[in-house]
Specification:
This protein is α+β, with helices and mostly antiparallel strands and 321 residues long. It has helices at 3-11, 59-68, 72-90, 172-219, 259-271, 297-310; strands spanning 16-19, 23-30, 33-34, 39-41, 44-50, 95-97, 101-105, 111-115, 131-132, 248-256, 277-278, 287-294, 316-320.
Length: 321
């Protein structure tokens, strides 16, 4: 496996990948954004390069040794050999890291990094791409007004005439049947609504009676005589309090395979005046020694900038979940 591919793989897992005696690639998180034109940008991590971070933290060499199934010492020698080749190449041409970016040296002998920007290193946004949201289309419907038919014939249309042009003849039997249907409908409706009214009144009366019974019970007094005191003993077992894990924002000084070495580093930092602690171990089993662990991201970032730009110390930022 080439060193370029190893660096790219590690950028998905770590916010800082340090190449000993060369520099470090850093990732910076950006939240979801929708601009004024309706373009959707998912959450992403962009890559930067810092040539001041050259101290070996062991992450790159350990990962390479595990993937290539070689010793840690051999992995370090291969990295040093590759870094030496990169430095010679930078004197005449650009150094390319596929999927990450290009590094060049300008006329002032200063290293310039150009990120590709095509790869999103945020694993939580896997499969999400930038897209333009299409505007909603207003569909207007035309409704046709249907003219109402005028009733030009004012006669009773219940019965059809026998012959065209002849006067309408109304049957007395049919007339009496229609009147009977109307009367039966009125009687049925009166019985239904009357019965429903009676049922509603019964429900209201029951509710009033229940309220009065409850009131009488509350106001009543009872003579229970002299009651003996009852002693109740509870064997209460205290429930173990649930420990809620806290998020910490740490400034890491180095990663070590041995816990003993990490503790020695922490002791050294404490002697120098830092509130150093052992931070959360990574998935590879490396123990991290931190300059300090903070409850807010602002405190950790301020400490990181102070170490890097004021004290010129090698450090990197870590969010512990």
């Amino acid at each position: 496996m080439q060193l370029n591919q190893i660096i790219k793989d590690l950028l998905y897992q770590y916010e800082c990948v340090t190449i000993p005696r060369f520099g470090a690639f850093l990732t910076r998180s950006h939240n979801i954004k929708v601009n004024s034109n309706g373009t959707f940008f998912p959450s992403r991590k962009e890559v930067n390069f810092n040539q001041l971070l050259k101290s070996n933290d062991g992450i790159l060499a350990h990962y390479m040794a595990q993937k290539e199934k070689i010793t840690y010492e051999l992995a370090m020698r291969l990295i040093e050999k590759e870094v030496s080749s990169w430095k010679k190449k930078l004197q005449t041409q650009a150094l390319r890291f596929p999927g990450v970016g290009d590094i060049i040296v300008n006329e002032h002998k200063k290293i310039i990094f150009h990120p590709w920007g095509k790869v999103n290193f945020d694993v939580h946004s896997y499969g999400l791409v930038t897209f333009d949201r299409q505007p909603l289309i207003n569909i207007s419907k035309e409704y046709k007004t249907i003219p109402l038919m005028e009733d030009t014939n004012k006669d009773d249309l219940m019965f059809a005439p026998e012959n065209e042009g002849s006067p309408i003849k109304k049957s007395p039997i049919v007339r009496y049947a229609a009147i009977g249907i109307v009367v039966i409908s009125l009687l049925g409706g009166s019985y239904f609504f009357g019965d429903r009214y009676v049922a509603d009144q019964l429900i209201v009366a029951q509710q009033k009676a229940q309220i009065q019974i409850e009131k009488n019970v509350q106001e009543a007094t009872f003579d229970l005589g002299n009651l003996k005191a009852v002693e109740v003993v509870f064997n209460a077992v205290p429930k173990e309090s649930e420990i809620i894990p806290l998020d910490y924002y740490s400034v890491i000084a180095g990663s070590f395979r041995s816990l003993e070495n990490a503790e020695k580093k922490v002791k050294q930092l404490i002697d120098e005046g830092y509130s150093a602690e052992i931070a959360e171990s990574n998935s590879e089993g490396l123990h991290r020694a931190a300059f300090g662990r903070y409850k807010t991201k602002k405190e950790a970032i301020n400490m990181l900038y102070f170490l890097k730009y004021t004290l010129k110390e090698d450090a990197w930022y870590l969010e512990e979940n």
